[in-house]
Specification:
The longest helix is centred in the N-terminal third of the chain and has 30 residues. The strands form 2 sheets. This protein has an 11-stranded mixed β-sheet, with helices on both faces. Strands 6-7 form a two-stranded antiparallel ribbon. It is 50% helix and 10% strand. It has 28 helices and 13 strands. It is a multi-pass membrane protein.
Length: 838
């Protein structure tokens, strides 16, 4: 048995004869047999455990400085053989010979290398599976020009700089891999950074993402080209021709065949056999492109790219992604890490020159974007930002560099230098994103609420749509909102679709005159219905302008997408549908629990006022509301609800009733401990009650004076003793058959008339009165709009509102208190209307 020490230049390992023992060790336990680190399987599992532990600790630590996980993976890579290798490799722990011999002996690589390359084959499949080619085809001219410049210029620049460090003729073709590495923009890494910094839907973010997608796709072509040329320069044309033929075969025959099979099996669901067959196809595709003379990753990537069905994509991703990214990919970083040795960067050259090359490599993306900026009509400041953001790298750059080492055209010196440059480039991206974040730079717009909007200003509304059943209720509300040429309404209809299978949030602006790639059939059909409904509303109304947009994102990202879009469009009001719909028996049925969390997220982070719209069957038989009531208890949310109703009341076909609920003197004299909610989380927002009462009196006074001669507007004041009388009064209003109830959410307003209701809230996002109106105790059909006013002082920022699932309601709060007419309380019809003469 003979062992040869690892050569200094790992990049030339394939040129070195490495001897190792062929005997297979059988470990019979700690008390019998050899050292547990000797058997390959035991050693492999220990290597995997150590690498995963180190990288996850680094990911956790680096999140405090806003660095993406890829930086942690690179750091562990810059310092041996682990889930990112630098920390565990020759540059750090690898200096300890005992550690090196014990944890990463040479013979262990006969297991690590095959596992590493299997991992990147399935990683490539997942990348292709998530990539949306339609998004590339929809790329605008501006982003396409930047993408082309960001591909060509860095490639030639990197190729030229490469020769500064190369003296050996045998490494001539290494420039292909160096240049290709500089063209890469890590699409998934960039998306996460932009999303976190709320840059995703800004002009800078859209341009950077679109160009990154094109760069990412072109990097696969560079990988195929480099691998084919360096494998056999004379046969490289045939390698490329046969690989292109394989791609065409997949697009023209494999994709239609898969589509046919999917249509036959979609109803029954995808069996384990079906998923295994797909994964076998991945391996077969890798074998084919390997035989063609290019990299096995190319075949796996193309096979993932042609999978036609989103449900199948989501199913495969759910089953495969955690295993590949959590178990297999760490092995690849082990192998990449052992190839990195920082000490060799300054071999036969100086650190100063190496530093210059690293700086040049980091600046080439910025340089290329600035060159093309005048042709793309991109401001210099934006071009500089896009260039910095385009420096984000991903695992793809390591795959390209490692391929160069495998082919023997990149030495450990040139490989290590580029790895360090990639690390610096990626670390710069997050600070750049923070600098250009709209949170830091966007000037706030002033009129973010209905109350502050001028009557002759354009009323900008963002109407969110979860499904087509939301459309009639929303259009019903908009018709009642009194659009006119003097006071126009600009409506952005945002269809929100759960993102499955793809990696990126998609925002599609629907233009009836545009041609090009379409959405999947069911999404396209829904979008067509929504567009038709809003187009019809625009045609039948004066002073209305509509635009339909489809946003595809995960439920966790949906609230953030709504808020960013509202800020971008400078909306004054966001309409979000309630997550429950009325069933035939009158019960409110939860159609999707995830939407409740979305609504709560919007209420918490909205840049303007928000209304949760609830349909209790009214919209099914009416096209607009004509009999409206405002339940006014006091506070900014109620003033916003009244402001919206006031706008509606300018429509001559609308009758408005405003009912102000006032606690009696006896109720106010009670100890607050007797009527404050038992769940303090519902009252964590404090408001100055005296100042709010003055504001209420002032606003209501203006309203009463302005509407004094309007016979279609009624105003009532009810003096009540407790919440039971308030419930009775509200229930008695059912006799009036109102079409639409407007209610403030009531944040921070503690009143003896509503406080007890908070203890029985099933949906805290509606507030106590809104939650009461959702119950099935009302017989008439109506809609409800729960209004929350935007607060620019952030004094009312709520972090304590919770969904019903997180609140433990005791048995004593299982039902609401019931009040009947026999309790001696008058019905609403007997209440006295406000008379200005008394």
């Amino acid at each position: 048995m003979a062992y040869q020490s690892m050569p200094t230049d790992i990049g030339k390992l394939n040129r070195t004869i490495l001897c190792y023992a062929e005997s297979i060790y059988r470990f019979n336990g700690l008390w019998e047999g050899p050292d547990p680190l000797t058997p390959l399987i035991s050693l492999f599992l220990i290597q995997l455990t150590v690498s995963m532990t180190v990288v996850h600790l680094l990911v956790y630590a680096l999140q405090f400085v806003n660095q993406p996980p890829f930086v942690a993976e690179l750091l562990v890579n810059v310092f041996d053989a682990s889930y990112g290798g630098i920390l565990l490799g020759p540059s750090a722990l690898g200096r300890i010979r005992a550690y090196r011999r014990m944890m990463f002996p040479n013979y262990s690589f006969k297991v690590l290398e095959p596992m590493a390359h299997l991992s990147i084959v399935y990683y490539a499949f997942l990348v292709g599976l998530k990539m949306d080619v339609r998004a590339v085809m929809r790329t605008g001219q501006k982003a396409m020009k930047i993408a082309i410049a960001g591909t060509i210029i860095p490639f030639f620049f990197g190729s030229g700089v490469y020769f500064i460090f190369v003296n050996e003729k045998s490494e001539t073709f290494g420039f292909i891999f160096w240049g290709a590495a500089l063209t890469v923009t890590g699409f998934s890494v960039l998306m996460k950074i932009l999303d976190k910094q709320q840059l995703l839907h800004t002009e800078i973010g859209k341009t950077a993402v679109a160009s990154a997608l094109v760069n990412d796709l072109s990097s696969w072509g560079f990988l195929a080209l480099g691998f084919a040329i360096t494998s056999s320069p004379t046969n490289s044309p045939w390698s490329l021709i046969t690989t292109i033929a394989f791609v065409l075969l997949c697009v023209n025959y494999v994709r239609p065949a898969l589509n046919w099979i999917i249509q036959k099996t979609e109803v029954q669901g995808y069996s384990e056999f079906y998923i295994c067959s797909i994964l076998t196809g991945v391996a077969l595709s890798g074998v084919i492109t390997d035989v063609c003379g290019t990299h096995p990753m190319i075949g796996a990537f193309v096979f993932g790219l042609v999978i036609p069905n989103e449900v199948l994509e989501a199913t495969i991703t759910d089953k495969l992604e955690d295993f590949v990214m959590g178990i297999l990919i760490p092995v690849y970083f082990v192998v990449c890490g052992v190839r990195t040795n920082i000490d060799l960067i300054s071999y036969n050259t100086s650190w100063w020159l190496a530093g210059v090359v690293i700086v040049l490599a980091c600046s080439v993306k910025v340089f290329s974007t600035l060159i093309v900026a005048p042709f793309a009509e991109l401001p210099i400041k934006d071009a500089f930002a896009v260039g910095l953001l385009s420096n984000a790298k991903s695992i793809m750059v390591l795959i390209i560099l490692e391929a160069g080492q495998i082919q023997g055209v990149l030495s450990t010196q040139t490989y290590s230098l580029m790895v360090v440059a990639v690390l610096v480039m990626t670390m710069v991206v997050t600070p750049a994103a923070i600098r250009f974040s709209p949170v830091q730079n966007t000037e706030p717009y002033k009129r973010r609420s209905v109350q502050k909007a001028k009557s002759d200003d354009q009323f900008r509304v963002l109407a969110c749509i979860y499904n087509t059943r939301n459309v009639p209720t929303i259009i019903n509300l908009l018709r009642t909102s009194n659009a006119s040429p003097r006071s126009p309404i600009n409506v952005f209809a945002l269809q929100l679709v759960e993102l499955v299978g793809r990696a990126t949030t998609m925002m599609v602006v629907h233009d009836p005159h545009s041609a090009g790639p379409r959405n999947p059939r069911h999404i396209e059909a829904q979008a067509d219905q929504i567009i038709a409904a809003f187009d019809n509303y625009e045609l039948r109304s004066e002073g209305v302008q509509t635009q339909a947009v489809t946003a595809r994102c995960t439920y966790t990202a949906m609230a953030n997408e709504i808020c960013i879009f509202a800020k971008e469009k400078r909306s004054a009001f966001i309409i979000i549908p309630f997550h429950k719909l009325r069933h035939l028996d009158g019960e409110m049925i939860d159609i999707n629990p995830s939407l409740q969390s979305v609504n709560e997220g919007v209420l918490e982070d909205a840049p303007c006022s928000v209304g949760i719209l609830i349909d209790r069957g009214f919209a099914e038989s009416h096209d607009h509301a004509s009999n409206i009531v405002v339940l006014y208890f006091g506070g900014p949310d109620d003033r916003e609800a009244l402001a919206y109703a006031w706008r509606m009341a300018e429509n001559t076909n609308v009758r408005l009733t405003v009912v102000r609920f006032i606690p009696s003197t006896d109720a106010l004299e009670l100890d607050p401990a007797e009527w404050e909610p038992s769940d303090k989380n519902h009252t964590s927002v404090e408001i100055d009650k005296d100042s709010e009462k003055l504001l209420d009196d002032d606003y209501l006074g203006k309203f009463k004076i302005a509407t004094l001669n309007n016979k279609s507007i009624s105003y009532y004041e009810l003096v009540l003793n407790d919440e039971e009388e308030a419930i009775k009064a509200i229930k008695s209003m059912d006799e009036q058959e109102y079409d639409l109830y407007l209610v403030g959410r009531g944040r921070g307003m503690i009143s003896p008339l509503t406080s007890g209701l908070a203890d029985w809230c099933d949906c805290p996002e509606l507030g106590p009165i809104g939650d009461l109106l959702v119950t099935s105790e009302f017989e008439s059909l109506f809609s409800v709009l729960i209004v929350q006013q935007y607060d620019n002082t952030n004094k009312m920022k709520e972090g304590s509102m919770r969904s019903a699932s997180s609140v433990n309601y005791g048995e004593e709060f299982a039902t609401r208190p019931s009040v009947s007419e026999s309790d001696g309380f008058e019905s609403f019809s007997s209440f006295k209307k406000w008379d200005p003469d008394n």
